[in-house]
Structure formats: C-alpha cells, structure tokens
Amino acid sequence: MSFRLIALDVDGTLINDQHEVTPRVRDAVRAAAAQGVEIVLCTGRGSTSALPVLAELGLEGTMITHNGASIVDSATKAILAETEIPAALARRYVDFAKARGIHYDMNTAFELYVETMEDHVALMYESMFALPIARSEAEGFPEGMVKMSLFADKESLDQLEEAWGDWQHDLQTVRSGDYFIDVQHPNASKGAALEQLATLRGISRDQILAIGNYYNDVGMLTFAGWGVAMDNSPEDVKALADEVTVSNNEDGVALIIEERVLNRK
Question: Which residues of the chain does CATH 3.30.1240.10 include?
C-alpha cells in the first residue's frame, strides 16, 4: 500500500507522556515527508497549540485542528475551513459545566479564551503550548467559536457525561482524553475534515495512513485506508482500527512509519 498522506494525532500518539517528540519519531516523520508524503497533524488541540509541534518536526503545511472543526495553513495562518458553534446552542453546556465547577475554554480557529484559570489549569495549558486570552462573562462568546473544551479530573468528567446522558443534544460532545470533553458542531470531526482535505488534494482513501489513540480519532481511523491505534488506546478504539502498534511511550508512530512507509523492517 502506497501512502500519499499521513494523518497524525498529537497527544497520546505523536508525543509521549512527557509531551516530547522523541528523536526516532521526529526522524521517521521527516523521512516520510522527504519522500513526498504529506504530513497532516490531525488534533483536538487548537491551531496555536499545534503549531509548535509541527515546528519541532521541522515541517509546515495544512493542519486539522479542534477535532476537525478547523482546517488551517500553518505558514500563512489562513483558515481553509471551519465549522462554527452557534452561541445560542453553547450556553447551556457552559452553564452546566460552571454549575459543577468544571473549567472550560472557548476556541476560535487560532485563539483560546478563558474566564478564569487556576494554577493547575495554567500548567495544563503551558504543557500544550496554549496561550489563553482572558475574556469576561459579560463579553459573551467570541465570534467564530468552533469548539469548547471542558477540563477536570476523570471522575468529574465521567459524572458529567452520565448526568447529561439523557439530554437532547444540540451539539456534539467528544471525549478527547481522560481529562477533556470537547463540545463542537455535530458535523465537525477529524474524519469529516480528513475526507474534505483528501478531496481537495485528489487523494483516495486507500492512500491515507491515520494514527491515533482516542475516541476523537475514530472518524479518521475508519476513513483512512489504513487506521492505526496506539497500544495506549481504549480497547474499543483498538477494535475499530486496522492495526494496533506499540504505545506513544515506545515510539509507536515511528514504528508504523518505518514499516509501512519507509519499508524498514
């Protein structure tokens, strides 16, 4: 199978648990790019938070961010496509989170806004190269909002998901990690954005390799011609992938690229 595009999730996939791109992973990704394969970060992160990761790889290009709610060009900062959230639909999700003391942020394609930020939340943003902008409740939601993210301990988010399980949801809620729930437009997903980009590029599904590790990656793993789940993925995510590689702490991305793109057995 010959691949023309590799879609890479970032957290839990491309980087290890110390938020590092290891030399082996970096070298494998660069080698694939040198062979003419397009590398597309396909992440739940915002664009500004994803840019330093792409720079660490020594690459530029198109990124799919906010779980597919934005497609952006890293060099020009142009927004190629985005799926906005109507403010009227966002309000009850925010009110629900605030009533439970759960931190949330509001994202446009390139900006991340917060009303409040405790020390442990600030450390989380710092680890992800995110630069929050203070925005008061009176200012309301920012124009062009594509995603809201809720951040708390796993138990609190489990309880929140259970509590709103009976809702008639106007927006899509996506568990993008143990400590994150993303709220976005029902039509936004990594899979849908990857399909849109593939159509623009004239690339068929069987020419796409996708690698991810969590529920927000399922769309791209199942759309791609070959979808690979990391060993640190939940079991039901692994079950939907074509292949499971070793974990993000064992250079799983490098292993797959070496074997399936660079043909290094």
Answer: 87-184
Rounded Cα distance between 252 and 25, Å, is 8
Low-confidence ranges of the chain (pLDDT < 70): 1, 264-265
Per CATH, the number for 5-82+188-260 is 3.40.50.1000
Question: Under CATH, which number does the domain 87-184 receive?
Answer: 3.30.1240.10
Positions annotated as catalytic residues are 9
Single-letter amino acid code for the residue at 247: S
pLDDT in tens, 104-138: 999 999 999 999 999 999 999 999 889 999 999 89
Listed in order, strand segments (DSSP E) in the chain are: 5-8, 38-41, 62-65, 70-73, 79-82, 103-107, 112-114, 133-134, 147-151, 172-177, 180-184, 208-212, 226-229, 243-244
Q: Which two tokens stand for residue 176?
A: 């993008």
The two structure tokens encoding residue 105: 């942020």
Q: Which residues neighbour 129 within 8 Å (Cβ) at sequence distance 6 or greater?
A: 48, 49, 51, 52, 53
CA neighbor of 182 nearest in space, from 110, 116, 106, 113: 106
Question: CATH 3.40.50.1000 in the chain, residues?
Answer: 5-82+188-260
Residue 249, SS3 per DSSP = helix
